[in-house]
Amino acid sequence: MRLMTMGSSLPPYFGNSDSDLQELARRIGPLQAMAFDVDGTIADAEGSVGERAVAALRSLSQAGIEPIIVTGRILPVAADPLRRAGHHGIVIASNGTRIGDLATEEIIYSQPMPEEISRLAIQTGRELGLVTVFTLPDRLVVEVFEEGNRWTQGGYAVFKIDVQDLDTVDPTLVYNVMFGHPDPAYLDSLNTELKARFPYIDRSMTNFYEMTAPGEGKDKGMQILAERKGIDLGKVAGFGDGGNDVSWLREIGHPIAVKNARPEVMEVCEARIGHHADDAVARFIENYLAEYSGPRLN
User: Fold this and answer.
1) Is 238 exposed, middle or buried, given 0-12, 13-18 or 19+ CB atoms closer than 10 A?
2) 73, HSE (Cβ side, Cα atoms, 13 Å)
3) 50 contacts: CB under 8 Å, gap ≥ 6
């Protein structure tokens, strides 16, 4: 049930008040699952998934509602919130190109970048003066990194980034590529050029573009998970903020944006809640469960 009204440029805003969030929960109704981007969504302003968010994920699991992580983070880090919540579910990592089942410790999907795209990314980053970040199965690699430079670390502030000549990285192990720059306006100016080279690239955060192999993405990851878990995507609520969330939010029944989301995310969502730095997603989960905590739908 989409809440958007005709002629409205933004979906309805429900803020962070308990009464408004409970009203949104009533409008959404019973769900099979909730899915969450991490950075800029369920993570706090420091890039960490705090105890309140973990407790909310635990409560969802206990209520029989599947909590799903769908993120650009590498799998070991992406899995951490669900492990802390005691939920042995499926984690969609590296923007859908690495999917792991925590119950079996199995990698159920793995699709690296084609070598020629990884090589073109190195060339592009150097030509345009961008920080190029390679996502490998268990780490991130950059050629230049200044300690304490928060924009470079971005959403990855919670774990280490390795510095290495990108030409020496095994291209068969590159699952995701990010281009970063301290000036968002400069990135704005590169949009046409980057899209010409990489039509499938997204502006994931203020200081970053991000891409996987053509045809890959969080939307494909959600489809794989839904088939494996028997989940109807129409009975899923999801939360995101970046351009790389648009594809999967379109696939589910109830896409919801946080206040800090990019405009293209707002356009595909039926509602907005508060800012990620104010635990908006955890607050919604708490209020949703106050309204509905019955068994999972079949």
Assistant:
1) buried
2) 31
3) 44, 279, 282
Annotate 247-258 with b (16+ C-beta within 10 A) or e (fewer): bbbebbbbbbbb
Show the tokens assigned to 27: 């409008």
- Mean pLDDT, residues 18-36 taken together: 96
Contact call for residues 219 and 233 (beta carbons, < 8 A): no
pTM for the whole structure: 0.91
Residue 152 has pLDDT above 80, yes or no: no
Determine how β-strand 90-93 pairs with β-strand 98-101: antiparallel
Distance CA 183, CA 205 (A): 12
* Dihedral sign from CA coordinates of 180, 185, 186, 188: positive
Q: Six-digit token pair at 214?
A: 């053509």
Measure the CA dihedral 33/260/18/26, to 10°.
-40
